[in-house]
Design goal:
The complex is a heterodimer. Chain A is mainly beta. In chain A, 0% of the residues lie in helices and 57% in strands. In chain A, the strands form two sheets. In chain A, strands 2, 4, 5, 9, 10 and 11 form a six-stranded mixed beta sheet that branches. By secondary structure, chain B is mainly β. Chain B is built from no helices and eleven strands. Chain B is globular, with a radius of gyration of 13 Å. The mean pLDDT of chain B is 94. Classes of the chains: A mainly beta, B mainly beta.
Amino acid sequence: AQSVTQLGSHVSVSEGALVLLRCNYSSSVPPYLFWYVQYPNQGLQLLLKYTSAATLVKGINGFEAEFKKSETSFHLTKPSAHMSDAAEYFCAVTAAGGTSYGKLTFGQGTILTVHP
Amino acid sequence: DVKVTQSSRYLVKRTGEKVFLECVQDMDHENMFWYRQDPGLGLRLIYFSYDVKMKEKGDIPEGYSVSREKKERFSLILESASTNQTSMYLCASSFAGRNRVGEQYFGPGTRLTVT
């Protein structure tokens, strides 16, 4: 079984400030982890993914995430927020094998607001 | 560019009606998925299909069925719509290869209201 918990349903930052969106996972087998972003009135698009290679993963639009097995975390960061980063962000997990392989389990989502 | 299209952006149906939501992808993806998205609950998997005529239940299949007669098309069916099925429905597709696992491409969604 696998699950994802995103801490904080809403995060608000000023333009230029650090963005930190938190994600903790639970998985009985080695996980693959993902961050997706949903802009208003659009479907989701992949930001980045971790598949057991480098623990620090870089994605699109300046985002990155670090896999920390000891903390079962996969937090998303961006050094300097831009107004265009305002969106809802979803963390997701799938198992690296077994019956859950390829099926994503999503977190509850975090809405990021960026103030001028 | 990968394109996943859904038949309607907005749909209003009455309780008890049979509802069809259509999804088409143009990238020859093997896997297709239907999710519903509700505030505070994230996305929940309803059904998925890894091949034509193949389907598997997701986490919340009750009240839904699916059909995949062609590789590019995956339909979600609400046999008798109920008000608790008012939601945003998202379709997604992906390649089956191990190096692409979890990389899903999403349609824009259909916001269904059942009155």
